[in-house]
Write a structure and sequence with these properties.
Length: 67
């Protein structure tokens, strides 16, 4: 609540920015991995599958977690 009540901070620091997989892909290149830090309930696989379909890129996924 402290951030929400500060005049200089507020909502800008509490609301995460929208995630755009096309923008992330556009900023990447073949020698630098894309690292996505997940929070509880987050699942970027839909965005990744859509990007691979849109760009005609083959990808394989491997689950390393228990979920």
């Amino acid at each position: 609540m402290m951030v929400a009540n500060e005049k200089e901070m507020g909502e800008k620091y509490l609301t995460p920015p929208p995630f755009d997989m096309n923008e992330v892909f556009g900023d990447s290149f073949n020698k630098q991995p894309i690292i996505i830090v997940l929070s509880a309930g987050a699942d970027p696989m839909t965005d990744i599958r859509k990007l691979s379909t849109d760009k005609n890129i083959k990808f394989e996924s491997l689950s390393l977690g228990a979920g």
